[in-house]
Write a structure and sequence with these properties.
The protein is mainly alpha-helical. It has one domain. 65% of the residues lie in helices and 0% in strands. The protein has 16 helices and no strands. Helix 4 runs antiparallel to helix 5 and helix 9 packs across helix 10.
């Protein structure tokens, strides 16, 4: 089984997955030769990115359990660099030891959550996280921290994660005009959709018009991006940018729009323009989110 269109035969996907993993492992091997943390940055960043891309290929192949392991590997490397984006990958993967791994990097998470200045963020042991200060105020990293909260809140119903006056939320609102990845939504709009779904865990009905409109806008943007990417036939067939093809930010939104057992909270079909339905991979975020939910439900 595979979510990929006919342009990506199974043997090509398998070859691409093996290539990405071999390169990631080569960079991990290079880390063992490093003497100082600063020397680790480039090979660690490469390994993190390659593991993330490999996870996306595995998701296209519907090898969901393998993809979850790879997402967690990628997230761990990003967190070691001091990038909260790694935490959102770990939270999405939802492995049983996810919370243990996140707690091991609590200084990175608290630096972003509490918006601590560099003099306070750097304590004993922070030399392990060379990018921690740069990431603390970067909009993409702030959004990743909120993605962790939405995923955690949705699973645990932890009201403490919904403090409106928290420094992280204030900083995110201040940067709300920045784009939320390649979704076509601003951070403000993305947050509105994510919060609505996270807070309506047992919802079973029609979503509000403004939420449906934002999801429709995201899917229309995705259709245009996929159409443009497909025009570059060489790189399309190579799967040069698998993370962009599946769009992990869109997957997180669709994940929040599904129940624990993998069924949708509401009818999501109306967010896709019927005229676009034949666009390859258009509904991949939706299908991947459902697969992740079902795999986590069965494994736990």
């Amino acid at each position: 089984m595979s979510l990929a269109p006919d342009e990506f035969p199974p043997e090509r996907l398998e070859h691409r997955l093996r290539f990405l993993l071999s390169r990631a492992e080569a960079h991990i091997h290079d880390l063992q030769k490093s003497v100082e943390p600063a020397q680790d940055m480039l090979p660690r960043a490469c390994a993190a990115t390659l593991y993330r891309d490999a996870a996306c290929v595995a998701l296209l192949m519907e090898r969901v359990h393998e993809a979850r392991i790879l997402l967690q590997k990628s997230g761990s490397q990003f967190l070691t660099l001091g990038l909260p984006a790694g935490a959102s990958l770990i939270a999405l993967a939802g492995q049983q030891d996810a919370e243990t791994i996140l707690n091991a990097h609590i200084d990175v998470l608290n630096g972003a959550r509490k918006q601590r200045g560099s003099s306070k963020a750097r304590g004993a042991g922070d030399f392990r996280h060379p990018m921690i200060d740069l990431a603390r105020s970067e909009p993409r990293q702030l959004l990743a921290m909120m993605q962790v909260d939405w995923l955690w809140y949705e699973r645990r119903r932890d009201k403490s994660l919904y403090r409106r006056d928290e420094p992280l939320r204030i900083a995110l609102r201040r940067n709300g005009g920045h784009p939320a990845g390649t979704t076509g939504l601003s951070i403000d709009s993305y947050s509105a959709v994510a919060e609505w779904f996270a807070e309506h865990n047992d919802f079973d009905g029609n979503m509000p018009d403004h939420i449906a409109a934002l999801l429709s806008a995201m899917m229309a943007t995705r259709a245009e991006q996929l159409h443009a990417a497909r025009k570059d036939g060489y790189h399309w067939r190579m799967l040069a940018r698998p993370t962009e093809l599946v769009d992990l930010d869109a997957i997180i939104l669709m994940y929040l729009a599904t129940k624990v057992d993998g069924s949708p909270k509401t009818n999501l079909d109306n967010v896709i323009d019927r005229r676009r339905i034949k666009t390859p991979l258009l509904d991949a975020p939706m299908q991947i989110a459902l697969s992740l939910r079902r795999d986590q439900y069965l494994k736990h």
